[in-house]
Amino acid sequence: MKASSAGLEMRAAVLSRLDAPLDIVSGIRLTSPGRGQVLVKLAYSGVCHSQLMEARGQRGADPYLPHLLGHEGTGKVVEVGEGVTKVKSDDLVILGWIKGAGLDGGGARYQCDCMTQPINGGGVTTFNEYALVSENRIVPLPDGVPLDIGVLFGCALPTGAGILTNDLRPPPGSSVAIFGLGGIGLSALMATLLFDCSLVIAVDVSAEKLDLARAFGATHVIDASLTDPVAMIRTLTDGRGADFAVEASGQARVIEQAFESVRRGGGTCVFASHPGQGERISIDPYELICGKQIRGSWGGSSHPDRDTPIFAALYRDGRLPLERLLSKRYPLGSINEALSDLEAKRVARPLIEIDTTLG
Prior knowledge:
Elements: E1 9-15, E2 23-29, E3 37-46, H1 49-55, E4 67-68, E5 72-80, E6 92-96, E7 108-110, E8 119-122, E9 130-134, E10 138-140, H2 147-150, H3 156-168, E11 175-179, H4 183-191, E12 199-204, H5 207-215, E13 220-223, H6 229-236, E14 244-247, H7 252-261, E15 268-271, H8 285-289, E16 293-296, H9 304-316, E17 329-331, H10 335-343, E18 351-353
Parallel strand pairs: 11-12, 11-14, 12-13, 14-15, 15-16, 17-18
Antiparallel strand pairs: 1-2, 1-4, 3-5, 3-9, 3-18, 5-6, 6-10, 7-8
């Protein structure tokens, strides 16, 4: 539908209460996009640890219930609102949480007879058949990037690979340790292949993910359930510690380990995910005086309109084997199974199939 969304309804996964399964709700009514908004029919969605934290109530009180979830996806533009110039009807697009160029259309709200109050949508959601998305949360899908692979360009790839390409840019001969091999960690690991690193050390508790890390170019892997990763990294670096550590598990203790693992005199730890509400990390301030550094990264310091074409070219050239990240696919109705599998570390990046006929 190009001209109007009048009468259009959708099915979506709704977070109605914390630490409970998402509700699969039908009959949610759509409206035409307002100024700065784009109506998109979703093809695929990824599932990120951030949505798991929201659903499990690990971000504290949630004033926006009930609301939709998901912040990386792909789809086709149905209709554009006033002022939108970045895309047009029938364009294939990537949806992501990192703001880029274009208007900010504000938060979307939906109505459904099954709910006594509106369903909040925010600037972008993807656990739904359609989405009203702000123009600044979408980019055109690059040529040669399939719709399913394009999902990773919405969060996992710009965050994980962006830490390497934008935040760290390791010099030749650097040693890099990656803690946590979910979608972000594996994207960071793949990005080390773009640099001339001497050591690439992957740390996780999943044997399957560590095997995948070897295939992605890790020179060494450490099963943190069997071995002290900090001690092993020191052994592998002749007692110095790694030049860089990327922490992507979202656990406070692992952030501490990543910081402990880098060398004095300039070693840098960057973390992209975060622990649950109220958790804190503890580090020895003397290590900071000795020249270690630690900092967070907001989406890999990525700019979607700048970085998406760069990552797409690397994918087309075979330098980013992104298809290996998508380990299991689920229909939208099985979103709770996907969240449980992610929580149990059975998958790296679940892929939700919404409408595979698009494109």
